[in-house]
Structure formats: structure tokens, C-alpha cells
Amino acid sequence: MSTLFVNACLRGRESRTLGLCREYLAGTSDVEEVDLAALALVPLDGPTVAQRSDLIASATWDDPIFDLAHQLAAADEVVVGAPYWDLSFPSALKVYLERASVCGITFDYTERGECVGRCRAHELTYITTCGGTIGEADYGYDYVRGMAHMFGIPRTHLVAAELLDVVGIDVDARMDLARRQMAAIAAER
Known about the structure:
It is a single chain. The protein is 40% helix and 19% strand. It has seven helices and seven strands; from the N terminus they run βαβαααβαβββαβα. It has helices at residues 16-25, 36-39, 46-57, 67-74, 91-100, 139-151, 171-188, and strands at residues 3-7, 31-35, 77-81, 107-109, 115-117, 123-129, 155-161. Strands 2-1-3-6-7 form a five-stranded parallel beta sheet, with helices on both faces. Strand 6, helix 6 (139-151) and strand 7 form a beta-alpha-beta unit. The model has no long low-confidence stretch (mean pLDDT 95).
């Protein structure tokens, strides 16, 4: 079973989110990591969209512009690590999802216009940390969960360690709550 780890933890080793992701993935044998900080993807622009549209129209699926989409479509499981920034996640994750979202690879449409996911993954786990509380403003996980549904990934899980920057809070206890969430997800497999 292959696991795709989409690493949107732009602070690198200092990231508490990345630490939780590494713990969650420990013992997983086949992990392919996409380090968004290292990729430094740029948003699609007009010429790139036109190029991509021409390639889709001609069914030229082996172009490198589709590499991220093929990688996502082939994974058996997806883990996304993204800190809670500005009510969602770092923009690098949005750019990644934009580039990996390709009609004909990660999703398709039926003749009636219904979206059908083409990804093989059976689940996606979204791991995040937050200095304060996320509460009802969890637009990051909601967005990723919606994309997973579009891609045909039937189950999603959220792991969130909150209140980590509150003065006087027991950070270790908050991280342990997230670890228990991860253990519960692992036990479901």
C-alpha cells in the first residue's frame, strides 16, 4: 500500500504539524513525500492553463505538468500536513491542489455532468496544528475534504492540535490529544 504525504509544513523541522505527521507516518513502509516548500510551485497563469487545456484535449497524459495528478491518483492513502494559517492552510497547498486537480486523471465527468473521482486512495488524513482555536472556521479541512470527495476518496479524517500558543497552556497535553486522535484513526484500519 502506498501513502502519499503532502507536506505543507513550510517551517520545516520547527513545525509542530510536521512533527505530528512524522509520528503518524512512523512505521509506514511505502511513503512518498511531496515537500511543497522544496517544490516552490507557482499558481497557474493564463499561458499555463492554455497549455494544460491543450494537453488534456489531445489526451497527452505523459507531460510533466501532470506528474502531481498522476502521483495523487495512484496513491492508496493520502496524508496532508498543513498548519492552520489565516483560517485555512498555507497557500502552497492550494497551488498543489490546483495543479493535482486534472479532469481525466484525478476526476472526470459523466455524460450527465456528474463529477466522478478517479483516485485510488481509500482515505485522506489531514493533520494540523493551531496556536489558538479552530472552532467553526475550519476552512482548510473543509476545503481539502471537499477536494477528496471530488477525487473519489471516500473517507477523510481530521487531526488537530489546538491552543498551542496560549500562554500557560500545557502544550504537551494538547499534542497528546492529537496523538490519541492519530492512534484512533490507525486503529480503524
